[in-house]
Amino acid sequence: MEEPVNKYIREHSTPQTEALEWLEKQTNIHTNYPRMLSGAVQGRLLTMLVELCGAKNILEIGTFTGYSAICLAMGLGKEGQVDTLEINDELEDLTREAWSRAGLSDRIKLHIGDARETLKAMTGREFDLVYIDANKREYCEYFNLVIGMLKKGGLILVDDVLLGGKVYGAEPSCDKQTQGLLAFNDMVARDPRVEVVIIPVRDGLSLIRKI
Predict the structure, then answer these.
(1) What CA–CA distance (Å, rounded) separates 180 from 174?
(2) Coil, strand or helix: which one is 8?
(3) Helix locations, the chain, DSSP H
């Protein structure tokens, strides 16, 4: 059940578009873990952050059913592209239909395969904004692979960094996802190349700016 504070925030934020509303319903119908979807409030935040920083070239690691890719692409100006990486091709048809319904198929390029290998093949590319929402065990690897591709002043947004409170409990969980996030959060906090703030939207969103 939706918590009262989250319900209030959602009801007093700009609502999602018809295409995003459709995709949210389809994700609930066709997937086992619909909570992996960014959702209306975080989705709107992603769009606003893209608009505020004027990003033209965006990299997304982990697209799931394509909800966050739509939100990122909605913030682009007349020119711009989202390159999104996804290892699972089973939801590709649903993802592409959602992008078509949003009128953004020509602004989003899907790369199917292991993100680490795809990122290595992208050496030489430059991005204004990177959004990471994939395998938590590999967050440190993703960060180290993309930091060199991010322009100075660019943003890295990282989802689920609080993981339902598992990372800051009195006794943090020993599962590999939690341990991966603990290592990632500690690593970024100590990295002199960036400045970072974690905001407690949904499961925690880390805003990292390359300085």
Answers:
(1) 10
(2) helix
(3) 4-11, 18-30, 40-53, 67-74, 92-101, 115-121, 139-146, 176-190
DSSP state of 32: S
DSSP single-letter state for residue 175 = S
Asked whether 136 and 181 are in contact (CB, 8 A), the reply is: yes
Segment 38-94, tens digit of pLDDT:
899 999 999 999 999 999 999 999 999 999 999 999 999 888 999 999 999 999 999
Residue 191's pLDDT is what?
98
Amino acid making up residue 27: T
- Cα 114 to chain centroid, rounded: 16
pLDDT at res. 169 = 82
60-89 burial code (b ≥16 CB/10 A, e <16): bbbbbbbbbbbbbbbbbeeebbbbbbbbee
Report helix, strand or coil for 50. Answer: helix
Q: Give me the count of residues in the chain.
A: 211
CA 42 to each of CA 36, 112, 125, 152: distance values in angstroms, whole numbers, following the listed order: 12, 24, 27, 25
Q: Do residues 132 and 143 make contact, with C-beta atoms less than 8 angstroms apart?
A: yes
- Position 171 confidence tier, pLDDT thresholds 50, 70, 90: confident
Write out 105-154 in H/E/C secondary structure: HHHEEEEECCHHHHHHHCCCCCEEEEEECCCHHHHHHHHHHHHHHEEEEE
Helix (H) or strand (E) holding 85: strand 81-86
Q: What is the pTM assigned to this prediction?
A: 0.95
